[in-house]
Amino acid sequence: MAQKAAKQIARRNATALNQLHIISASIHAFFIFYRLLIHRRSISTSVLTKYVLFSLPAVLIELYLEKISRPKYAAGGDLRRAGEDLDAKGLMEYMWDVVYVTWGCLIGAALLGEWFWWLLITVPLYAGYLAVSTFLGIRKTFGGMGGGEAGEGQDEAGLSNRQKKLEKKGGQKIRYR
After folding, report:
1. Position 104 pLDDT exceeds 80
2. HSE (CB half, 13 Å, CA atoms) of 59?
3. How far from chain centre, in Å, is Cα 136?
4. Cβ–Cβ under 8 Å, residues 75 and 96
5. What are the CB-based long-range contacts (under 8 Å, 24+) for 105-108?
6. Residue 174 DSSP code
């Protein structure tokens, strides 16, 4: 059963990586040819520098995804390693987001102009938003350990139903420090 799942992941990864490379090559070729053929006067070292600099993260991510996710087969055709799942949650999603945003910026910069590269600022802004919201979420979960608001107003709110019943009966009292 596990081998079947590994083969399925390997098949999905191979398909996704092939699509990634085809789409990426097409978008990069579109940018270069559109700029060379239609907007020939706008080609300068500044434009080429921005193209290389802003495309580099997506290309590096693409190479990294290729390295960790491409299935490996033995000489006889048996699957040795399926590779990391490209549909995994977490960091894998964010890497795909960087690739998609870069593709959008490439198309926008080719068609609409160099100002479209400013859209790439959304990537670090989104990462900062996620970092802050994660930090605040973790901080709230440590309420009893001094991380959150632990105070006198916690008398009734922090009690379970069993503890409330015991206090009504006058039994076991719970003390907070």
Report:
1. yes
2. 10
3. 19
4. no
5. 105/54, 106/27, 106/28, 106/30, 106/31, 106/51, 106/55, 107/27, 107/30, 107/31
6. -
Site of tokens 């290389």? 52
Q: Is residue 7's pLDDT more than 50?
A: yes
Determine the 3-state secondary structure of 39 from DSSP. Answer: coil
Average pLDDT over residues 42-63: 88
SS3 79: strand
Residue 77 identity: G
Higher-confidence residue of 82 and 174: namely 82
Instruction: Indicate the average pLDDT of the chain.
Output: 82
* Between 150 and 157, residue with greater pLDDT: 157
- CA dist 156 and 170 (Å) reads 15
Question: Any idea what DSSP says for residue 173?
Answer: -
pLDDT of residue 59: 94
- The 10 Å CB-count burial string (b at 16+, else e) for 105-141 is bbebbbeeeeebbeebeebeeeeeeeeeeeeeeeeee
Q: Is the pLDDT of residue 152 over 50?
A: no
